[in-house]
């Protein structure tokens, strides 16, 4: 741990004990918005789709993938990644290739993650793979497991999973109890690896980043560049402050957030979770409340005041539930035309029932926007995108990546519709947020910056062309 503290101190960080939270990461220098606080390769990682070959095992890129001819489970984007993964994969490959069809079917991403973790530990112990102060199994050992908080059913499941791991790699020395506990560690420490647009790709265990605690009003954000986890400051962070990220979707009421945090075995005491009852009711009303049925009134109906909802509201809510299940079946089967009709219907009914800032209505709008984009109906997609931005600005903090990404989508739609000035404004707003959360040096950000330059040049050209034609008129 001394070696870790030394490595962290050169980055202006320290792991400390935080009362009520266990360990936490604190700053020993100031950080500005957009500064990288820490970045780390995973100790072990796995794509979430095992058989489809969705991403490269090495860098999580999704193009030019080729299947490993030995195990036919791992995929690589080229020789560089295949070689960099080879020491661990060589052992994994032999194990996977020898599995019967039935056992292969039981191979889940969690099992594969554990197999890779144990193989890496073995190779580090044998000094085939080097260790560093921020990359060694002692850091995995130090992670919280909450094993004593887990119910019997979950414990049995972890024990069964540990047995399966033993069957996959029988030649690795395995303590079944330790492996079961490791599954519990993964549950409360591993992170979902996402692409730049926050779409999930897989899971990774990042033992140093796992010292960062949660807040529903975080000062930092975790994003991924390939499979490298990068924590950036979202706001000015002064020396001696705890670095905090959010483990969950924060566009939710306090009770929903607390439910989502249950898997981590703590009750959040952040400023949002400890608001006064009045303030909390107000937030709930905005996010989940129904609108007043009097069309002239812009007030809310609270869902959780205990008063029975009036009959009409209940009936409408039931109607929405039924339509939603039909619509999502349509959507998952790729029938976008029919899904668009159903979701438009849902949107109309929800608009009568829910307040403009309701999360449920926002989710319907998000789905509808994606459907319109699939149908290449750019105009309708733009209208919906603009609606969601208004809500995002209320439910997310100022520099949240979701807000930046939505501005980016808005800009792309405006550009397609040749609304150059609007596109320029949207790309500028997207850049102002995403350069803080995503940095500027990734292919994703370079593409956005290129689009911004293009929109700027086109807008300048259009304005100068407009000016010269009006000069000619004079
Ligand atoms: C990823 S770990 C974070 C580091 C952890 N505190 C440690 O000691 O290693 C997640 C665990 O930290 C604790 N934790 C995280 N955020 C917390 C918070 N806001 N309040 C209390 N405990 C928290 C919970 O025990 C949770 O399961």
From TrEMBL:
Its EC number is 2.1.1.354. It is an enzyme of class 2 (transferase). It comes from the Eukaryota. Keywords: Methyltransferase, Transferase. This is Histone-lysine N-methyltransferase protein. The lineage of its organism: Eukaryota, Viridiplantae, Streptophyta, Embryophyta, Tracheophyta.
